[in-house]
């Protein structure tokens, strides 16, 4: 290694094998996570497009989301293996490769899916066209998803900075979700229905612009750290990964097994919170779908403060495992209270400044229902954010643990075996929602803004919006009993990695 290159690498090194990145690079890299969530948000409302323009009934449209998620899981190990086989260099590292491939495939194929399909002649050509480009779309999503996990490994292994990565990533994602929920509600009212083709054309344009900006910023921020010195241990043929190592990882990496249990149950509940469930809860039960956007923004801002305190205090001082446990117990308690509020109070009295309530009345003060639900939502949402925001830092720790266990960095394989099992177990959420709607009488079309209220719809919304999330938190608590990557353990892991790299120079 020449002196100039060595000096550039040492610029980012601390004692004990710790390497870091400037704060602005850490914050900026969160743009990749934001972009991935924006593109995934398109699939969360996809069932309305399938129902309205591709010609699929409710259960089939919901099952399509399950099938595509399974396909997404199947492509994960293949893409992950390819990424880990690619050694990378100064010109194009693993993270940058994934950003370019993922961003390009997502942008092109999402345009074809949501801007071209409805302009084709009606009949068999529409579903064939949509399904073909959806399959490629999910390959792009896999690449972009891997970029986050690989980027977290090469950007920093400093425990404090990995906490910052989780904080900034969650802030970007949560704020953008709140904004896009406002966009969804606004466009639904503007065009009269979520099934409108014009709704999807405009929504796609907003997603495309924001996602491209996020990916470009991430690329710039990871540039100096996305090199082999921060993502490999050995630089010879012995370091080459083999496909059969997937089975070894899944069998012997116990922390990864526990992360899969925790994440899959959480994701199952998240995939059940489809746009149809949100529409039922706010558009039908509350009686004003436009409130969903304002409500999400208000509660997200306060919830982010809770999350920041949780990660900053709990994650740094007590470790990520403790943060997961505290967050999960918080979700169990607060979701239980939220369910009782929706059942025993009047949801139509939900009121916010600048919005009409469910009775068509202008804001005249905060009602008891609003105050109670707000408190429960922001505190419970803060605990949920603690859970979701520490997943990536925990997977980064699992990557380091695997490097010590096997002698190789397998960031792509770890990321994809994790996401494959996650998607395999959680993929049935949308199908469950579709079956639920069919059982209560909605077999051909989803409930829409003009659907009358019924107790069945209230129960449906509560079960899929709160009940399954509560159950997922219980599984988290159980899984963390067997997750042994404590702060003390991770200190040993990082020192061992540093010794292994020095021995192989």
Automatic annotation (TrEMBL):
InterPro entries: MFS_2 (IPR039672), MFS_trans_sf (IPR036259). One of its GO terms (cellular component) is plasma membrane. The chain crosses the membrane at residues 21-46, 52-71, 92-112, 124-144, 164-183, 203-223, 268-289, 295-314, 326-345, 365-387, 424-442, 462-483. Keywords: Membrane, Transmembrane, Transmembrane helix. It comes from the Bacteria. GO terms for molecular function: symporter activity. One of its GO terms (biological process) is carbohydrate transport. This is Na+/melibiose symporter.
